Amino acid sequence: MQVTVYNCRPFDEKDLFIEYAKEIGIELVLCGDAPDLENVSLCRGSRCVDVITSKIDEPLIRAFHENGIEYISTRTIGYDHIDINAAKACGIKVGNAPYGPAGVADYTVMLILMSIRKMGAILGRTGLQDYTLAGLNGRELKDLTVGVIGTGRIGTTVIKDLSGFGCRILAHDLYEKEEVRQFAEYVPLAQIWREADVITLHTPLTQDNFHLIDKESIAQMKDGVVIVNTARGALIDSDALIEAIEDDKIGAAGLDVVENEFGLYYYDHKADILKNRELAMLRSFPNVTVSHHMAFYTRNYVETVVKDSLMSCKCFMEGKENPWEVTRAGERG
User: Fold this and answer.
1) Element (H, E) at 322
2) C-alpha of 84 from chain center
């Protein structure tokens, strides 16, 4: 049994892949680069490939198929970077690797606190040895209403974490949970837009919620609202977000994800001209914190997704029940 691993990071994943592959009984082909049409032939001889959030589009999927690939395992919870319909058309199945929700939940709460306490501006001044206070007056979480959109594992953990701060919590999800009702009130989206001081996103990206936060929804929000996104960049219309920040409609934002981040994140671009004007604009605002899609990135995450992605491949190759398999978009096997 052989698996070709793309995007294999040498500083934290490589040794784990080697260790777990030996433990599980799988041979590996390791590649540090993202899969593309130039290196796709590396997977010849494998039935499975193991990837992260690189764009896996229809031409690449066809190339995988032509090289004998039957299964794609992504070391992520989300799989919107994979063209599921193209994979299905080629008879290729897809699996993801959910990890514990605590890392992203911790990071979300951190971004909320950084945003309401104006930490970006504080750190900027401190770096210049400017220790003045004017303009740095923050807000306390206990005085705010937080709207949490999406109450899956991560959203639910965020709600539980926030409950300790004494803030009012509103929640929205198509599938409501009783455990969430202990800490939050489920309400329609319109009520979150209208009443929340802070809005945090924890929903997968689908055709139905693309640009969930856009010019129309922003217009319904409170002046000075804080937006936090640790889910998927395309949940927010970047142009509408930038315009609202410039107009002081949005008071602050904490963004671990942005639109059109594929090909940018996880690479060194110090000497490059980036083809993402929206990202450049967002990074220029003192009230916006931008990080490079790394809320998930903890020791626990790395160990979990490396092992589970290989176990997913092993289950597939042995024809066993595969708890990581995604049969089609939005549905688990």
Assistant:
1) none
2) 18
86-135: per-residue pLDDT in tens?
999 999 999 999 999 999 999 999 999 999 999 999 999 999 999 999 99
Strand intervals (E) in 86-133: 93-95
Please state at what angle helix 14-24 crosses helix 299-317, rounded to 10 degrees: 40
The domain 102-290: what is its CATH number? 3.40.50.720
Q: Which residues are registered as beta bridge partners of 82?
A: 56
Both structure tokens of 77: 């919870």
Q: List the Cα angle 26/32/34 in 5-degree steps.
A: 100
What whole-number distance in Å separates Cα of residue 146 and Cα of residue 138? 16
Q: Does domain 2-99+298-332 sit in CATH 3.40.50.720? A: yes
Q: Which amino acid is at 330?
A: G
Residues marked active site are found at 232, 261, 293
Length of the chain: 333
DSSP assignment of 279-294 equals HHHHHH-TTEEE--S-
Q: What is the pTM of this model?
A: 0.90
